[in-house]
Amino acid sequence: MADADDVFDFVKEAIPNWQQIPIYRIEDTDKIINFLQTKMQQVKPALNGLVLAGGKSIRMGQDKGAFKWHGKEQRYYLADLLKQHCDEVFISCRSEQLSEIAVGYNTLPDTFIDLGPYGAILSAFRAQPDSAWLVVACDLPLLDAQTLSHLIANRDTSAIATTYKSDFDGFPEPLITIWEPKSYAVLLAFLAQGYSCPRKVLINSETTILEPLNAGVLTNVNTPEDFEKIKLQIQKITAST
Fold this sequence. Notes:
The protein is α/β, with parallel strands linked by helices. It contains 8 helices and 7 strands, in the order H-H-E-H-E-E-H-E-H-E-E-H-H-E-H. The chain has a 7-stranded mixed beta sheet with strand order 3-2-1-4-6-5-7, with helices on both faces.
């Protein structure tokens, strides 16, 4: 670290309490990088929660957000989980679904239409571009508070997003991800090139990818066959606790 004598007098006059600022030489590259990374982590954008419940559930044949895996509709169960960690929580939906959402839950209807989860994420950033968004899909019945807490504890604000690696295919899982404000411009840029796949954005961008704490916790339910398998699994888990 450089000495205080190396600081120009005009800098001392212009910056109050300059003595409290670390002084590095230009060749102290690693120390400068570490200092900046620490500061970036300390100044974290507010974190909002977004439950993706606007899908049409065509393969399932009924609304996946309405399944009561844990005693209440899954969209509300996840929203309540997110409320423990986020400044504000919203349920993402299509405009025609607004009347279906229970009183007491914030809604965020799509303003980017017919883009699926990609449009929901973009709609959230359009509403609050300076916030980060913890996005969770409503078809993850095994998702628990521990998995959310681990994701948030390891949030990397220097990346565009922090996410988990899928047990199924090893790729990043875009629908349980913290998307930082800087990802808004990246998502728009991909859309301008004709891409509307959030996973493609994660793969081709600076993304922090974590290993899931528990195998299978990110299993999603898309078909009646999936439904029956997960139903039995949850029953076994419940019976053992």
